[in-house]
Amino acid sequence: MKIYKTVLLLLVSIFMISTVSASGNQDNTSGAGERPKLKVFLLSEDSNRLTLHQDYYLPKVAAQFPDFDVEFELPGNAYVQKLKIYNAGGDLPDIFWGMDFVVESENALKLTDYITNDGFYDKFKNKNGLISYKGDYYSISPGQDAYFSSVLWYRKSVFADNGIAVPTTYEELLDVTEKLNALGITPISNQVWPLAHFMYQDLIAYEDADFMKELIKGNAKFTDSVALEAAKKLEKLVQSDAFSRDLAVIDHQSHVDLFTSGKAAMLYHPLWIQAAIAEVSDDVGFIDLTSMSPKTEILTGWGSPFNGFMISKNSKYKDEAVKLAEWMVTQDADYWSKEQNMPVSYDNGVVISGMTEATAAYSKMFEDKNVSTLPNMTQVLFNEAIRAVNEVNMGKLVTGQITAEEYVNLLQQSIEEYL
User: Fold this and answer.
1) Taking a C-beta distance cutoff of 8 angstroms, is the pair 407, 192 a contact?
2) What is the DSSP-derived secondary structure letter of residue 69?
3) N or C: which end of the chain has fewer CB atoms below 10 A?
């Protein structure tokens, strides 16, 4: 009996030693030989993004990437809040639609070497479709947003019927404003945010495009004379009653209705407004405010270095994630160009027909190597906090609560505080 117990204890001991040894070997080779599974966190409150998921990504991804699995998460309207939770916990999905706070917290993978070494970068017919941040790329997209320049739209009939020439300079715009006000016609329908995000930059570039380039790089200040003069030009437009009187509170639809009804002669808004003003499209012309002409050699784009597919710096499968993200960009390019007739920077070989006159004109400029394209400063230079402060202060400027000098001082102060 004693011998039996001794043998039994010996067998148990051998079993326990072998079990610990196996567990140790498994821990030391964690991930070896396992099938990769990547998680993709998608914007999903937008109908375009839902269509891309349902019709492009989901039906094709398994055949495209047979060596790994892909899980899509669609949080609906909770996207930003949930991304912030993921980011704060250091547990980001492998791929997600980017935000500036992820880059600021150093949780986004730098994609520059990946996309240049594998040739993806070379597939962009206009490299301005990919926007860098401090010299590196953190997100990738087909670059469709980059084409959304802001435009001063005008009603041809309002100008023709009243014998008023379409302005070609800032001074002429002031003169036109005076004539239209005398006729009881609102010169320019507008809201605060296009002024904060676009018009102020257009007026800086109007003053000095080279200064605007340095400003975007962080090598100049908003308190410098050029930026101050641009703010004064905007202030003078306000003082001349160039904009609708309820500018600070007008809602989007009312803003559009003023223009389509002919009660406003002009409307300042990015190119994406075209669908909303389609009912009067035959009577609409457009002006590039930067040079007061649609044939400018300086073009302000939109886009952002953050609004595209990002990859977590902590992803276990970085190479696979890059390949998947690049493929998703090609799917986005096909959707926007083939189904939405929108120009994209990624060259997928699609020749778009049926573009509106304005989109075609700006697309041609955007892809012209002789045209210098400036990224949007509020997307490249500002972070979320600065954008919020800037919109508040722009609202104060256009309602006369602060002066141009106070506006630029507050803007520069917010940059120094939050960057």
Assistant:
1) no
2) E
3) N
Question: pLDDT tens for residues 36-59?
Answer: 999 999 998 888 999 999 999 999
Would 354 be classed as within a structural domain?
yes
Place of tokens 């970085």: 318
User: Looking at the predicted structure, is the pLDDT value of residue 179 above 80?
Assistant: yes
Indicate the pairing of strand 372-374 with strand 186-189.
unpaired
Among residues 246, 374, 229, the alpha carbon closest in space to that of 299 is found at 374
CA distances from 219 to 214, 267, 393 (A): 5, 32, 23
Are residues 229 and 82 both part of a single domain?
A: no
The proportion of the chain whose per-residue pLDDT surpasses 70, expressed as a percent, equals: 91
Distance CA 354, CA 338 (A): 11
Q: How many domains does the chain have?
A: 2
In eight-state DSSP terms, residue 118 is T
Both 115 and 154 in one domain: the answer is: no
Q: What is the Cα 380 distance to its own chain's centre?
A: 9
Which CATH number does the domain housing residue 279 bear? Answer: 3.40.190.10
Alpha helices (runs of H) in 29-144, residue ranges in sequence order: 47-51, 58-64, 79-89, 100-104, 112-117
Distance CA 44, CA 21 (A): 47
Would you mind telling me the total number of residues written for the chain in this entry? 419
In a domain, 81, yes or no: yes
Cα gap 39→58, rounded to integer Å:
13
Q: Which of helix, strand or coil describes residue 37?
A: strand
Are 41 and 86 spatial neighbours (Cβ–Cβ below 8 Å)? Answer: yes
DSSP codes of every residue in 269-336: EEGGGGGTTGGGGGGEEEE-TTTTSSS-SEEE----SSSSEEEBTT-S-HHHHHHHHHHHHHHHHHII
pTM: 0.81
Please check whether residues 389 and 252 belong to one and the same domain: yes
Q: How far is CA 197 from the centre of its chain?
A: 11
Residue 296 confidence (pLDDT): 65
Q: Which domain holds residue 48?
A: 37-146+304-367
What is the token pair recorded at 89? 């916990």
Digit-coded pLDDT (tens) for 370-382: 777 888 999 889 9
**Shared domain check, 289 and 154:** yes
Do 47 and 191 belong to one domain? no
